[in-house]
Structure to design on (163 residues):
């Protein structure tokens, strides 16, 4: 398998991620789940995803579809198309699987994955994290990781607009 095939093998649907989750549970692996738009991948994302991955054996990233990003961020977003964003995320060593979702929140995907650890960035309080009550309800862990100052997609977009 060449490198690109390895990367694209990390791209899943909500149906195919189930098999990976079942295999991970059979092997007693700790599943970590996070989500986001990841419109313009930057250092803050890489640091955050590496830290999230360190909390378990398998990191699943739920990624907002193009339609979902547009509803959440406005008509000028996303900047990068869904396939491109998914491929970039999948190319990161910290990321095991990428699963696009079309809803405004990853609630359904979280119920499907049933992660051991649910993670978001430090700009989210634990009680605000979508799916937190579900995960805590079965004894899972919910973490809000420290926010890395100086890195934001919105900030990058504004900086580019000023050029």
């Amino acid at each position: 398998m060449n490198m690109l095939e390895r990367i694209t093998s990390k791209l899943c649907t909500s149906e195919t991620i189930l098999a990976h989750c079942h295999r991970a549970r059979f092997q007693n692996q700790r599943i970590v789940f996070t989500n986001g738009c990841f419109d313009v991948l930057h250092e803050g994302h890489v640091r955050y995803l590496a830290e999230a991955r360190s909390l378990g054996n398998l990191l699943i990233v739920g990624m907002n579809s193009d339609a979902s990003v547009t509803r959440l961020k406005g008509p000028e977003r996303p900047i990068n198309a869904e396939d491109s964003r998914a491929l970039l995320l999948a190319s990161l060593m910290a990321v095991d699987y990428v699963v696009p979702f079309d809803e405004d929140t990853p609630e359904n995907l979280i119920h499907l994955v049933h992660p051991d650890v649910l993670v978001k960035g430090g700009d989210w309080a634990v009680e605000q994290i979508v799916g937190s009550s579900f995960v805590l309800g079965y004894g899972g862990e919910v973490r809000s990781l420290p926010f890395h100052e100086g890195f934001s997609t919105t900030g990058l977009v504004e900086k580019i607009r000023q050029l």
About this structure: Strands lie at 31-36, 58-64, 97-101, 117-121, 141-145.
